[in-house]
What we know:
Two copies of one chain form a homodimer.
Chain A: H1 6-24, H2 31-37, H3 42-48, H4 52-79, H5 90-107, H6 109-124, H7 131-154, E1 156-158, H8 162-183, H9 186-190, H10 193-201, E2 204-206
Antiparallel strand pairs in A: 1-2
The first copy, chain A, binds a DNA duplex through helix 3.
Amino acid sequence: MSRMNIEERRAALVDAALRVIARDGVAAASTRAIAAEAGMPLASFHYAFESRDALLRAAVVKVTDIDYGHAEAGFHSIITDPALFSEVSLEELIRLTFDAYLESLVNDPGREQAMLELSLSSMRNPSLEHLPAEQYATYYQSALRVMAEWEEVAGITWSMPTTQIAQAVVIVLDGITTNWLATRDTESVRATLPGFAAMFAAIADTNT
Amino acid sequence: MSRMNIEERRAALVDAALRVIARDGVAAASTRAIAAEAGMPLASFHYAFESRDALLRAAVVKVTDIDYGHAEAGFHSIITDPALFSEVSLEELIRLTFDAYLESLVNDPGREQAMLELSLSSMRNPSLEHLPAEQYATYYQSALRVMAEWEEVAGITWSMPTTQIAQAVVIVLDGITTNWLATRDTESVRATLPGFAAMFAAIADTNT
DNA sequence: AACGAAGTTGGTCGATCGTCCAACTTTGCA
DNA sequence: TGCAAAGTTGGACGATCGACCAACTTCGTT
């Protein structure tokens, strides 16, 4: 393995770990499997990280930052695509956003499954148990940013505390995730989206 | 260990496995840990089950049957409690049902966490990957039964296909589960319930 | 009482796990 | 050029895992 400083090696190992977890699950993400995925000898693992837990901690932190970034990116692709977004109603705009998230889930199920597995395994580990709450705090922030864009694009204001709405949005997206991962029935899940979109649209006031 | 036939021993091992999984997680549910929890020597394990996967399969089947039974039982305790249920609106009835589910989740987090871990680990195992879909089919049936009681008690009919509504109900309960497990913020999650209750109440028609 | 079937279990196998060490190579500075 | 620091790595450690076997005990039948 060519020479690299610790930061580079740590980053390479985290990326490798996320690939292994997305493909084979947390249980299969042994130090040997991660090192092999990164193309490193096993001994390099414990030169870069003190323990497997330390790497998992770094993996959760990294993945939290990039995860809902996908959902946000999907949203931006909607409001900048004239074919999709041309003076649609708020309700339709919300539905399109949820649909974009569902599409990203279907296109890369391993990523969201990895998120869930990392969260659950973190809850079982005393040294990692505080991470899921931070993870969800990041989700709420993402939801708030998307809601702010809904506000701006559709010209509305929310008639309830936005943090509460953001949490409800995350709950719905989370439920959709677990539901689809278990059933793999895309059309069935998609059929529930208009109802949720109508719910959130109903708690918005049109600006005068 | 006293003498018992295979069916008894299998049942005892499944119960022990569910206790271990709820307490320590799927990863900690080794054949040795399960046998110890059941008070059996390790060798008894492979006399009753061909493999660890075979026991996990039996555990998922059993837990699916009893899991949403708790939610249903919570609902029944509401509509038979005069103090709670006295001519409340449909919306309030739905909110109380969701609240009862949240209470059951808070009172025994291990059970729902075990459900999630079992589902996720099943998805990674080719011999178990069909189980999560069956698990959710059972959830939908439970939701349909609760919806039927909402209908009867509140005197309404649904203005959308009931199977679709049932799936949305399961999505919301699932999202609530993962959200609370990660944040442990009961009041914050509870605050989202009225919104979801209003959503489902809005797709009901009052009987003339 | 005899005997095959059913149930029980201590001990062990090979595989895999996280972790660590000592030997080695390369780098940057004096 | 010399040498300490930083980076690299083959190999091994004790522990734990799922699985299995052969010896043992108990049961039901005749």
